[in-house]
Amino acid sequence: MTKIGSAYDHIVQELGFDFDKAKVSLEVGGDFLKKSHDAIHEYLMLASLFFPLQGAQKSDWDRKAAFLLVYHSEVFEQAHRSSMVALCASYNASFILLRVTLELLLKGAFWECFSHRAFRDSSQALDADKRTKRLKGWLREKLELHPGLEERLELASASIYDVVGCKIEEPKFRASVKTIVEQLDEWGMFTPIPKAADLIYQDIYRKLSVDVHVVPDRTDIGNRLTSGASEVFERKVLPEVLREYAELLHQIMDVSIVVELNVMGDLVREYGDVGGQIRARLPVLEGLGLKYAFAGARKVLGMAA
């Protein structure tokens, strides 16, 4: 047997161990775990409904490309990978991927909005942060020096990455997650979630940061110790931790669909059949227990609360 063949067989054995854990997780996770997972797929599918097969123009997609091209599918990929890792009882890694998922969503929505002048002209939260105020000023100077660039951003929002890509990770220009959340809330990207900034930043993001910073109790061994597992060095399915994970995943996907609907919602007014397709998903959103997404879909459809 070749070295590659031997390594492959070893990987298959390890995956078999993961499949065993996943089966146990599905047995103990119940219907709520399934709904949390299904919400990931609902998020991915919904975006496609905003572009009808008849009548849509490529320019419509380009206008939302800062969100759709770079970040939207990444949110799905990381959320889905996180759920698979959680099923295999690797909880610390699954929670870390949940924070990555949330950051992808927030930054995708932020740069989508930031690419359009109407949002930049109404961005008090950015003005209150010296770094993002500096970024706004830098972009304003860039637009003044290059006539036609602002129109390009309006028509193809992903162009924002070509313009500000060199500044995104510079500390003196970098937008903090807290500022991004506050600004998105101000822009209405979380409507109709009540006290959205507190929920998203304080209750979800900061909680997940504990896993990223590997606080002892949030490591996998720490979880086993606090859960009273008999063998702390053996990976085990921990029902309480799995439930905690499923609840956070469900919350994040609920928020994700709200953001998605708000970013894309203006297309409902442009294409009549889009509204019908979104309306058809209302029973699904309600059945998955996505209360904010359900309310958000009704909002973009112009339905009474």
Task: Outline the structure in words.
By secondary structure, the chain is mostly helical. The chain has one domain. 74% of the residues lie in helices and 0% in strands. The protein is built from 17 helices and no strands. Helix 3 packs antiparallel against helix 13 and helix 4 runs parallel beside helix 13. The longest helix is centred in the N-terminal third of the chain and has 46 residues. It is globular and about 65 Å long. The model has no long low-confidence stretch (mean pLDDT 91).
Number of domains: 1
Order of helices and strands: HHHHHHHHHHHHHHHHH
What portion of the residues fall into strands of 2 or more residues? under 5%
Helix content bin:
over 70%
What is the SS-derived class? mainly alpha
- Specify Rg, calculated over alpha carbons: 21 Å
Quantity of strands, as a count: 0
Count up the helices.
17
The shape, in one word, is globular
N-end to C-end Cα span: 65 Å
Low-confidence stretches: none
Which sheet architecture does the biggest sheet show?
A: none
Roughly what is the average pLDDT, rounded to an integer?
A: 91
